[in-house]
């Protein structure tokens, strides 16, 4: 079995995460700052720590599942798990400059 390049796989995971958009905001969830951490193990298992814009977010059930499915669709990924946290709570300061620009906040 070939060695897993964690950084390379991590970048692929982030690219796939950037294809997922918040249904209420025309910005991908990575640029929105909803992804707190992407961890890749030597066994190509991916764990994502993410938050939602609010605990009552209308996609609280479906969004984490979509993130998990998209990551698992990468052939190099053996398994994926998404953990939701509200610590720290999301706020607009977590958004990238690109997202703020897109939403006219700059």
TrEMBL record:
The UniProt entry, under SUPFAM superfamilies, shows: Fe-S cluster assembly (FSCA) domain-like (SSF117916)
Q: Which Pfam families match?
A: FeS_assembly_P
Tell me the ranges covered by the MIP18 family-like domain, including all copies.
11-84
This one is known as: PaaD-like protein (DUF59) involved in Fe-S cluster assembly
């Amino acid at each position: 079995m070939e060695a897993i390049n964690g950084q390379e796989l991590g970048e692929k995971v982030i690219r796939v995460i950037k294809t997922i958009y918040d249904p209420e905001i025309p910005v991908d969830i990575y640029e929105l700052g909803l992804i707190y951490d992407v961890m890749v193990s030597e066994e190509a298992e991916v764990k994502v720590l993410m938050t939602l814009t609010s605990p009552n977010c209308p996609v609280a059930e479906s969004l984490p599942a979509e993130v998990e499915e998209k990551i698992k669709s990468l052939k190099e990924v053996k398994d994926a798990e998404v953990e939701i946290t509200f610590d720290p709570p999301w706020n607009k300061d977590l958004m990238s400059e690109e997202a703020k620009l897109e939403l006219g906040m700059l």
